[in-house]
Amino acid sequence: MPTRRAVTGRSREPRARFAExxxxxxxxxxxxxxxxxxRLGWDWSLFGKMEKGETVGGPExxxxxxxxxxxxxxxxxxxxxxxxxKTQFKERYRRYMALEAEAVSMWHFAVSVLPGLLQTQGYAxxxxxxxxxxxxxxxxxxxxxxxxxxxxEGEGAPQFRTILSEATLRTALxxxxxxxxxxxxxxxxxxxxxxxxxxxxxxxxLHGLSSTDVWFLRLPDAxxxxxxxxxxGGDLIEENVAVxxxxxxxxxxxxxxxxxxxxxxxxxxxxxxxxxxxxS
Length: 280
Prior knowledge:
The chain is α/β, with parallel strands linked by helices. Helix content is 49%, strand content 13%.
């Protein structure tokens, strides 16, 4: 499908529009990418990737660009639209994400992989690369996943409960430093008033969700929908009887989990057990 164009001739797709604006602002100043990098103190190749739509960068670099170009808040606003653009995600997630944006509360269970809302950039990069993504597509999906984390921030953020199997904490990353950052981030998230984190210990044994990651979304109309997923697909469940069946399995699994306080302490113990980071 060709990129939509407004009467200005510029793209109406958030990510493409952001890239276009960056390129137009730079060329209007007559600066090369190297000159821009030297002026702002960032690697010039980052700006090249942002202008090609391969990455959207982070808020710090975008704020620096706003200051440099004298466009206070404009580029940051375009960046926020770009990172929250649902067209970046696979088609199978879009219906779910539309409902997720409306949810007043969410419950979740993870078999072996942290949910996107709790992932760090390094974790997301290694996870997505292990699934076969690389290059520009990998960077785009990492950016999109990081943008989703804002769902749990600010006023009006939904209540979020997650039950993580012990395997999600103990599965190693190639970079011990990134493994540590992942666990430290979980501890920080568990301290937020709208986030409840529980750990399901390995000794709990088999249970009704042993092979199923699941999300429950409580919607404003008091309806609850469920979404089950695995590495290669997912199913949105909206029929009440089916949702209740999965929720009974979730409730039974929650009964086996450590309390939130015990879970936080457990994550801290796993942190202490990590091998030393050779780079430190």
